[in-house]
């Protein structure tokens, strides 16, 4: 496993650090695979003001980033989504995508642990009437067909190897957005080089994604360079990157490896709300 220390400073707002781990074996122990903790500090004194469990917050802000990508990089009327993963990230991504794109009526889910999917579907399906959640009998032929026709793919796993062959996407005749959020280390990736090379590539943060396997491996192979990145998600929102200018390339990848400014901004919002509502526990250190 790995442990990451991610500090960030937000002008006139907050300063803090997130400590987050990545231990894929935790799922076998009933523990989160990416446990995290955030410490916020006072801007004037440096004294710690809050310690916040960041496992859920990390999942939520990651899913929120993908939802922004979905809002700006897909059509309003997309109908289907394929999700790789059965953990918290997968669950939150399904919920935010169905919120941003209520036109989605079919959600395919793939995970090595079927019991996780069944539990997740039982939790969320009552909230989304009219949406079909399909995870049974998805054999290789069915998955191949889905890859050619689905409108949105989310990869939220701890996989070390690509989840599908990028060549499967090359015969598509309509746009596809892939939100890849599960990998952050140089040696592991959810998407193969073919997928990355042939896609419009948008990232959450250039520095963090450059060391994720999705970029690090094809760069090492000499297949792409840093210039293959079309822009950051901020460029999409500000219209510096215009989706319509790249519609000839049907596949767009949004790669998220995590950016600490989102973590600290989210934690600061939670802290302010907790103070306002008198929630949490106060103690001296």
UniProtKB/TrEMBL annotation:
GO cellular component terms given for this protein: cytoplasm
Highest taxon of the lineage: Eukaryota
Pfam families: OCD_Mu_crystall
InterPro entries, sorted: NAD(P)-bd_dom_sf (IPR036291), ODC_Mu_crystall (IPR003462), ODC_N (IPR023401)
Recorded family membership: Belongs to the ornithine cyclodeaminase/mu-crystallin family.
Record's protein name: Ornithine cyclodeaminase
């Amino acid at each position: 496993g790995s442990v990451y220390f991610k500090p960030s400073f937000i002008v006139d707002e907050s300063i803090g650090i997130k400590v987050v781990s990545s231990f894929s074996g935790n799922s076998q122990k009933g523990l989160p695979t990416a446990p995290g903790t955030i410490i916020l500090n006072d801007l004037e004194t440096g004294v710690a003001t809050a310690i916040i469990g960041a496992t859920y917050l990390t999942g939520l802000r990651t899913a929120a980033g993908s939802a922004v990508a979905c809002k700006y990089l897909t059509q309003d009327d997309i109908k289907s989504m394929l999700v790789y993963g059965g953990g918290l990230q997968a669950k939150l991504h399904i919920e935010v995508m169905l919120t941003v794109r209520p036109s989605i009526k079919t959600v395919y889910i793939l995970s090595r642990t079927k019991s996780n999917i069944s539990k997740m579907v039982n939790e969320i399906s009552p909230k989304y009437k009219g949406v079909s959640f399909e995870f049974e009998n998805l054999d290789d032929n069915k998955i191949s067909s889905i890859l050619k026709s689905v409108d949105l793919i989310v990869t939220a796993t701890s996989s070390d190897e690509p989840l599908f062959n990028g060549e499967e996407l090359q015969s598509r005749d309509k746009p596809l957005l892939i939100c890849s959020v599960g990998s952050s280390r140089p040696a592991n990736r959810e998407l193969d080089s073919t997928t990355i090379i042939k896609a419009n590539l948008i990232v959450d943060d250039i520095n963090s994604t450059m060391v994720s396997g999705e970029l690090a491996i094809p760069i090492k192979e000499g297949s792409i360079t840093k210039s293959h990145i079309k822009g950051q998600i901020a460029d999409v929102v500000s219209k510096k990157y215009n989706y319509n200018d790249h519609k000839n390339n049907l596949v767009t990848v949004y790669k998220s490896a995590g950016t600490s400014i989102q973590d600290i901004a989210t934690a600061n919002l939670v802290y302010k709300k907790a103070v306002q509502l008198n929630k949490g526990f106060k103690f001296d250190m």
